[in-house]
Amino acid sequence: MVSAIELIEQDLGKMEGAIAHLASQLHDSYATYLTVLGQTVQKQLMLAGYQVCTQGYPDAFLSLSFNQRQNLQQALRQIGKEGRDELILHLQLPQDLSSTLDDELDDEDEELELLVEFTESLAETTTNPSPDSALTPQKPILPDQLLQWQDMLEDQIALTLQTVSVETNHLLQQEGIIPDKLPPTVLEAATKADAAGESSPGSNLLNLLVETQTPEDDDDSTLTRIIAVNLRLSEIEFTEPQLVKVRNQIRNLLAHTTKFQRQYRKKQREWTVVQAEAAWRASWFED
Predict the structure, then answer these.
(1) Gap between the Cα atoms of 98 and 113, Å rounded
(2) Does residue 136 or residue 72 have the better pLDDT?
(3) Which of 234, 232, 249 is nearest to 32 (CA)?
(4) How far is CA 31 from CA 26, 90, 117, 123, 262, in A?
(5) What is the mean pLDDT of the chain?
(6) CA-CA distance, 27 to 91, in Å (whole number)?
(7) Do the Cβ atoms of 140 and 19 come closer than 8 Å?
(8) Where are the beta strands (DSSP E) in the chain?
(9) Please, which residues have CB within 8 angstroms of residue 86's CB and are 6 or more apart in sequence?
(10) What would the mean pLDDT of 194-211 be, rounded to a whole number?
(11) Given phi > 0 = left and psi -120 to 50 = alpha, else beta, which region is 237?
């Protein structure tokens, strides 16, 4: 006769197989999403750079020589390619990356290390399916882990877009397009904060109204409007229907994962209670 503990463990095993299958689907969806996102980021970065140069500061762009304009465009393309590659690598991290991190990790490095480890686990689940209908890796993937991985992955995506924006603005400022009235550190902080500016759908631009001191009089200041690049995930998705489609798939998979998270926790609680009851009976004796 099958004991209550064995029945609960069987249920947990079935759930773990279903969760592993969800993890594989989520991994595949993100692989598609990041590939399309990387390509779209390249296009949107060039469009945002075009708008800054031609609509924001046309006089500054026209003051550049032909070669300078070409070099600027090439540098923008290179930043876009690097951003695309970095986005794709979030799911294709090298096996030895974790060994390159310092022994004393800051919060971002700790998050990246966890992302590396769990991405490797997901890759094993995806490439080495079991003969059963559900994927069952040697080490079960738990719902909490899967949701944490997804959250960290989204953080890394946002960080990449932020980095691409900051690098682009530094380039535009170095080339004399964006005025140097605004210190690069302030421009970088404004880009990261995002809340300091105004935007219109699909623009990926940041409009800042900045108070600057006049060289003639330190007590006198003027308001200067600064236009800079600020890639936003919501605006990038807005321009690409395929990203919206895959994002909806991801949301559905996450909803299923959250459902399994509740069920799995409940079943774990049942297992703990049954184990405690068995332990009580094992140690009990009549006076």
Answers:
(1) 6
(2) 72
(3) 249
(4) 9, 9, 17, 11, 27
(5) 82
(6) 8
(7) yes
(8) 205-214, 217-229
(9) 160, 163
(10) 65
(11) alpha
